Amino acid sequence: MGALVDRNPEDESFADHRVLIVEDELFIALDLEDTVKAMGFNVAGLANGKDQAMRLAPLADIAFVDVNLVDGATGPEIGRRLVEDYGITVVFMTGNPEVVEGRVAGALGVVTKPAMPSAVEKTLRRAVEARRSLF
User: Fold this and answer.
1) 55 in Cβ contact with 76 (< 8 Å)
2) pLDDT score of 4 more than 60
3) pLDDT of the residue at 101
4) What residues does 91 pair with on adjacent strands?
5) Which residues of 36-53 are buried (b: 16+ CB within 10 A; e: fewer)?
6) Is the pLDDT of residue 47 over 80?
């Protein structure tokens, strides 16, 4: 993915948002973390399954959630709980978007893997706008 992203002065508010990355493939998680940080966001943490994700949930505002994790296809359940229990803006990341597209109420959408930095950047900007409209 790489961390080649555009930043502008308006992005300073990104530091107010914390992003949780729920991904069991370490290199994908680290690459996504680099992109998120390059945009000026803080990373709440990396989780590779449901238990870790739920422990980190109180620290996050936005979450990227893979569908298939170390504990199975728990991504949709994690996403649902992050939205319902914590008010987190959830974006799913998967190679099979039809598995979650439109199936988790409150989720912002789906980014198809492998994701380019520009897709992550665009999605994070949408997530920030969605959160601003809620508060």
Assistant:
1) no
2) no
3) 78
4) 64, 109
5) bebbbbebbbbbbbbebb
6) yes
Of 25, 90, 92, 20, which is closest to residue 57 (Cα–Cα)? 20
Q: Which residues pair with 19 in a beta bridge?
A: 43, 62
Give residue-wise pLDDT tens across range 95-112.
Answer: 888 888 777 888 898 999
> The domain 17-134 belongs to what CATH superfamily?
Response regulator (3.40.50.2300)
> 88: Cβ–Cβ under 8 A, 6 or more apart, which residues?
20, 57, 60, 61, 62, 63, 82
Give the pLDDT confidence of 17-46 residue by residue, as tens digits.
999 999 999 999 999 999 999 999 999 999
Domain boundaries, the chain: 17-134
What does 22-88 look like in DSSP terms, one character per residue? E-SSHHHHHHHHHHHHHTTPEEEEEESSHHHHHHHGGG-SEEEEESSBTTBS-HHHHHHHHHHHH--
Pick the closest to residue 96 from 123, 114, 116, 71 (CA basis). 114
